[in-house]
Design brief:
single chain; 487 residues; Aspartate Aminotransferase, domain 2; seven-stranded mixed sheet; 12 strands; binds pyridoxal-5'-phosphate
């Protein structure tokens, strides 16, 4: 089908063509052999494309237009909080005083940056109900691992050998992965019929070997664990700690706090909740917060304030698990999060969460007569639907996701959580207008109708993309990224 789209030509190279013009060299050329070890000197010139500047610009601009981002359109990818990132965050992160400092500068010359780190630590502690925060971890999974290493240090300091971490079957895949990486054994417990932690299963699972329970609340079904205080009591009475996966804090800001629910350790994903552009692998920031009994184990150093009003890096922390990231975390992301918190303020952050929850409930309600909602009722910032009703027409959730591409939407998260058949996990976020939500809902209704009347239209989608159905496993595991792949 000729969609009228210009084909992307990859091979633009012409021998001798260059994209620069430099004045003649007016200093003696250094002899390569005198400054580069012999084993590292190239024997043959690098095989680089020979192109001129216009070709380079057009090539990369064209490629960038094939990428889908929040700035192109609606992106309801559940559990990922793909919300609009205010551009003022980018402005502050690029301020010369932040962007051009070096981590080896004397602390007297970076007092402003230290003040920002110190204030952000405190802001996040207040927001999560924790006593102290480290900004070092570079992602959510990294925060989880850091938290679990602290939990390990805590139990060891008490002479206890606790080797098991409990996770519910709806948990995010990083939870058992982090627990394993931190040297624990993972125990998975089934959710109950309402999609919540099964209290009896939890009681049966805890014991003298329980190191921690890892939980997301609201959980990955978008539901708030109503028995969270009882859950905390069961785990604490067994001598375990509670870990809060706060990657998605978009539903709770200013409304409730993990610290008040009984959690001992939490990480937040600043690149989700605090609106850093994300996707494509980073950079991110996954600060961890802890209750006072775990403060000694926090990664070091921590930004601290002296009584004379000057800031410093507190390195004198003998029980710390050590450094988990070079320097002090992904500083630029922390500047964005600081800006986000300051521009919204406490009332604004609460409003963010209220609107995120309202948008999700509005969408779930309008879609409920067209798709299966396995756990109806009130959801939080996201909800899970099932495409199982379309199977009778030979249409699966994957087909619905592919068909959405033809309408210019990024599909929702599919086939996660694992405990819902043919699942679609939709997170509209607070930054979308009612008109956008309605357009998406109408499209989803239209696709459900197509599935019933012309299923082959849905199973054959997408029609308007550069490539159609990919071998997604191989595309992720063995990507062909060089310029001779010839798509
Ligand atoms: C995104 C996410 C994570 C992992 O965060 P990364 O920054 O990708 O490592 C963990 N838990 C939940 C619930 C998430 O949504």
């Amino acid at each position: 089908m000729n969609t009228g789209e210009k084909a992307l030509i990859f091979e633009l190279s012409k021998p001798g063509r260059i994209a620069y013009s430099l004045p003649a060299c007016d200093v003696p050329e250094a002899e390569a052999a005198s400054c580069i070890p012999a084993s590292m000197i190239r024997q043959v010139p690098a095989r680089l494309p020979e192109v001129y500047e216009v070709d380079v610009i057009r090539h990369y601009t064209e490629l960038s237009r094939r990428n889908f981002g929040v700035d192109n359109g609606f992106y309801p990818l559940g559990s990922c909080t793909m919300k609009y990132n205010p551009k003022i965050n980018e402005d502050t992160a690029r301020l010369s005083g932040f962007a051009h400092i070096h981590p080896y500068q004397p602390v007297t010359s970076i007092q402003g940056a230290l003040e920002l780190l110190y204030t952000l630590q405190n802001d996040l502690a207040v927001l999560t109900g924790m006593d102290q925060v480290s900004l070092q971890p570079a992602a959510g999974a990294h925060g989880e691992w850091t938290g679990l290493m602290m939990i390990r240090a805590y139990h060891e300091s008490r002479g206890e050998n606790r080797s098991k971490v409990i996770v519910p079957d709806s948990s995010h895949g990083t939870n058992p992965a982090s627990a394993t990486t931190a040297g624990f054994e993972t125990i998975t417990i089934q959710s109950d019929a309402g999609g919540m932690v099964d209290l009896d299963a939890l009681r049966a699972a805890v014991g003298s070997d329980t190191a921690a329970l890892m939980l997301t609340n609201p959980n990955t079904l978008g539901l708030f664990e109503e028995h969270i205080l009882e859950i905390a009591q069961i785990v604490h009475e067994a001598g375990g700690l509670l870990y809060y996966d706060g990657a998605n804090s978009n539903a709770i800001m200013g409304i409730t706090r993990p610290g008040d629910m009984g959690f001992d350790v939490v990480h937040m994903n600043l690149h989700k909740t605090m609106s850093t552009p994300h996707g494509g692998g980073g950079p991110g920031a996954g600060p961890v917060g802890v209750k006072s009994k775990l403060i000694p184990y926090l990664p070091k150093p921590i930004a601290a304030l002296r009584s004379d009003g000057t800031y410093y890096f507190d390195d004198d922390r003998p029980e710390s698990i050590g450094r988990v990231k070079p320097f002090y975390g992904n500083f630029g992301i922390l500047v964005r999060a600081y800006t986000y918190i300051r521009t919204y303020g406490p009332e604004g952050l609460r409003q963010v969460s209220e609107c995120a929850v309202l948008n999700a409930n509005y969408m779930m309600h309008r879609l409920s007569s067209h798709y299966d909602i396995p756990y109806p009722g009130v959801c939080k910032h996201e909800f899970v639907m099932s495409g199982r009703g379309l199977k009778a027409y030979g249409v699966r959730t994957l087909d619905v996701a592919k068909r959405l591409l033809d309408f210019g939407y990024h599909p929702p998260t599919i086939y996660f959580p694992l405990n819902v058949e043919e699942s679609m996990m939709i997170e509209p976020t607070e930054t979308e207008s009612k008109e956008t939500l309605d357009r998406f809902i109408d499209t989803m209704i239209q696709i459900a109708e197509e599935a019933r009347t012309t299923p082959e239209l849905v199973t054959g989608a997408p029609y308007g993309t550069v490539v159609r159905r990919l071998d997604e496993t191989n595309a992720a595991r063995k990507p062909v990224l060089n310029c001779s792949c010839g798509i």
